[in-house]
Design goal:
This is Probable GUF1 - GTP-binding protein. The chain is built from 19 helices and 31 strands. With about 725 residues, the chain is an alpha+beta fold. The protein has an 8-stranded antiparallel sheet, covered by helices on one side. A hairpin with a 3-residue loop joins strand 18 and strand 19. About 10% of the residues have low confidence.
Length: about 725
């Protein structure tokens, strides 16, 4: 359901037409008039409420900021020290003084940079110029420059009240009062592989900042995350970032928002905010908009903690992680009531009771508080030692109360599978424990044990995409220090047997070979995806050829409006998932000079002529190298891989046969010649039969090696990694 948003996004992008001539002229007229004198809107007509965009960002917005980052430093420093010196201040905010929001955007549109500026302006972190990706705490996030894990942080903002030109964005005329407000920010990933993280985080929010790059406009992932936010019924605050760059075109981006996203920028509370997250210009207007354009969490006020009056306590668990000293830490959003240290709470999922040992908020480090109230986002440590008890989507409530569980999260369906094995087979139990702890922090990963004749005990994991797999692997190495071996990725295939049974096969070992297929299988199907490629028009030919080589079926070609002067083309293809989990992304970036973007969503299954390719070393099947592929590519890959195996397998004292088979048919073979000791070197003269006797004795000894099993070929670990790298780059 999450990825299907990409499908709808591609259709809507292709249907948009762009004719900006008349509207742009009108916009210029309004901009020039605004530079002289900006009237206060007196009616609710489109002309009076249209936000004005000019080449100078100082004349644009209802929510403008004249406070630079340097000026804001002095005003927020006192707030910062007060908040941090008295952590209990966080527990004094009621529901009406709380806002919970998320930042959503396409990749590289400035989401993490905006979060840094918000933290600085609220005094949550010092303004020393060294703040970069403060909420991206993982090593993999800082190295790759992307957000892969949602983070929650609590800020305190001093709101000075509505300005003279304020118009309520709500039908009931809601207007906030001056004072201090508690802002809960949940920073979300931007890549489609982490859409489950986005969906979970949005469930704990009431509003979202939709950040769009003013130089690029609305992109495919912008539409995807926007639709996820609308499904959660969140209030959307559009923000145009990088508006200070020469290539920025706010007018055209605003038109895109109206035509593609359906955001009516003529209405109060929906006009885009122009900012520069890098310099901090206009970011104070974002904080003001969060208070004025969004409402507090719905519901009645909390009762007194002492008497437990009012609604019962309910909290949604939307994230968790394992701390080796504290046990399981649960990140929760308080839906009703309040909870304090010492309370006994119950899990709706397991029915077990726990005592609240500690609770608090992230600001951005963990700060303990006395109470968490309705609308707040914080962490709870409740003496939960078993990792399996921490369920994402669970509901916590007081032990002596009966409540209805909150709506949880739908389980994810993995798109890519891979086996993970320890380099040293004796380290399997340590590796399994590390995987379980990391999976606690990423519940979209599925885990099950598997065994390989070549690699020993390991785990087979399911992921939402290739980037998801690669990030999990790096986190496993960085955070737990494990040297691991990852098999080539595979996808789940559907097998329909002749007795009517349907089975999903994700491990090539369990896939029927040719002989079994003819006797027992009625239909083999492979998963398909609907992919949307967007690139400059000049790369159209190369990308079409690439998609054709990967068995892609072209569905649509369109030329959507672009926020830049370069004309873009958007192509929609239906592709087998197995074709894009290899090196498709690398080839796409190569043939487009890095300018192409690719988003995909699942698109059901389709019948395919699929076969299982096995590799035999000295007539022994190497199960960890088995792979499923289309019959049209079997011969080429079989020849390439047998040659590669011949190059990397060490020579033995006996001849080694390397075979590639489909069923019982050998389709490629290489022979690794044996080391041969010169057993006749010590003979000086004599009859030829003396030499022949020694040679025959040597030959019989090599036969005995094979017969006793001593001749079994052992592939060194570093060589096996080369084999797997070859497989992952199959043609």
């Amino acid at each position: 359901m999450i990825r299907s948003a990409c499908n709808r996004a591609s259709t809507r992008l292709s249907q948009v037409t762009f004719c900006p001539t008349s509207r742009y002229a009108a916009w210029q007229t309004r901009s020039q008039a605004a530079e002289v004198a900006r009237p206060v809107p007196t009616s609710h007509g489109p002309s009076s409420r249209r936000s004005t965009f000019a080449s100078s960002s100082s004349s644009i917005r209802y929510y403008s900021s004249s406070v630079s980052r340097q000026q804001a430093s002095s005003s927020s420093s006192s707030t910062s020290s007060a908040v941090k010196s008295d952590a209990r201040d966080y527990s004094k905010f009621d529901r009406l003084e709380t806002r919970t929001f998320s930042i959503i955007s396409h990749v590289d549109h400035g989401k993490s940079t905006l979060a840094d500026r918000l933290l600085e302006l609220t005094g949550t972190i010092p303004q020393d110029g060294s703040n970069q990706q403060v909420l991206d705490k993982l090593k993999v996030e800082r190295e790759r420059g992307i957000t892969v894990k949602s983070q929650a942080v609590t800020m305190v903002y001093d709101y000075d009240g509505p300005r003279e030109d304020f118009i309520s964005a709500f039908d009931d005329g809601f207007a906030p009062k001056p004072g201090r407000y508690l802002l809960n920010l949940i920073d979300c990933p931007g890549h489609v592989d982490f859409s489950y993280e986005v969906s979970r985080s949005l469930s704990a929010c009431q509003s979202a900042l939709l950040v769009v790059d003013a130089t690029q406009g609305v992109q495919a992932q912008s539409i995807t995350v926007f639709e996820l936010a609308k499904q959660k019924d969140l209030a959307i605050v559009p923000v145009l970032n990088k508006s200070d760059l020469p290539a920025a075109d706010p007018e055209r981006c605003s038109i895109q928002m109206e035509e593609i996203l359906g955001i009516d920028t003529t209405l109060p509370g929906q006009e885009p905010l122009l900012i520069s997250a890098k310099t901090g210009k206009g970011v104070d207007g974002v904080l003001r908009a969060l208070v004025e354009r969004t409402k507090p969490p719905p519901g009645v006020e909390d009762g007194k903690l002492e008497g437990r009056e009012g609604p019962g306590f309910r909290a949604l668990v939307f994230d968790s992680w394992y701390d080796q000293y504290k046990g399981v830490v649960s990140l929760v959003s308080i839906a009703d009531g309040a909870v304090k240290k010492g309370d006994r709470i119950t899990s709706c999922h397991t029915g077990k009771r726990y005592e609240v040992l500690s609770l608090g908020v992230n600001s951005p480090e963990m700060i303990a508080t006395d109470v968490l109230r309705k609308g707040q986002v914080g962490w709870i440590i409740a003496n939960m030692k078993d990792m399996s008890e921490a369920q994402i989507g669970d509901t916590f409530h007081l032990a002596n109360e009966k409540v209805e569980p909150l709506e949880g999260f739908a389980p994810t369906v993995p798109m890519v599978y891979a086996g993970i094995f320890p380099i040293e087979t004796t380290d399997f139990l340590k590796l399994e424990e590390a995987i379980q702890r990391l999976a606690l922090n990423d519940r979209s990963v599925t885990v099950q044990r598997e065994s390989s004749m070549a690699l020993g005990q390991g785990c087979r994991l399911g992921f939402l995409g290739l980037l998801h797999l690669d990030v999990f692997r790096q986190r496993l190495e960085d955070e737990y220090g494990h040297a691991i071996l990852v098999t080539a990725p595979s996808v789940p295939y559907k097998v329909t047997w002749r007795d009517g049974r349907e089975e999903i096969v994700s491990n090539p070992i369990h896939f029927p070979d040719d002989s079994e297929r003819k006797a027992k299988v009625n239909l083999l199907e492979e998963p398909m995806v609907r992919g949307v490629v967007r690139c400059p028009e000049e790369y159209t030919g190369e990308i079409m050829q690439l998609c054709a080589e990967h068995r892609g079926e072209q569905l649509d070609v369109s030329f959507p409006p672009s926020a830049s002067a370069i004309r873009s083309v958007q192509m929609t293809y239906r592709l087998p998932l197995s074709e894009i989990v290899t090196d498709f992304f690398d080839k796409l970036k190569s043939c487009s000079s890095g300018f192409a973007s690719f988003e995909y969503s699942e698109d059901g299954y389709a019948a395919g002529d699929l076969v299982k390719l096995n590799f035999l070393i000295s007539n022994t099947v190497l199960d960890s190298l088995s792979i499923i592929m289309h019959r049209s590519k079997v011969m080429y890959n079989a020849r390439q891989w047998t040659k590669k195996l011949k190059d990397i397998i060490p020579r033995q004292q006996f001849e080694v046969s390397i075979q590639a088979t489909t069923g019982s048919k050998v389709i490629a073979r290489e022979t690794l010649s044996a080391y041969r000791k010169d057993v006749t070197a010590g003979l000086y003269g004599g009859h030829y039969e003396r030499k022949l006797k020694h040679l025959n004795k040597q030959k019989e000894g090599k036969k005995r090696l094979k017969a006793l099993g001593v001749g079994r070929v052992q592939i060194p670990t570093e060589k096996f990694l080369e084999v797997l790298d070859t497989r992952s780059k199959a043609k």
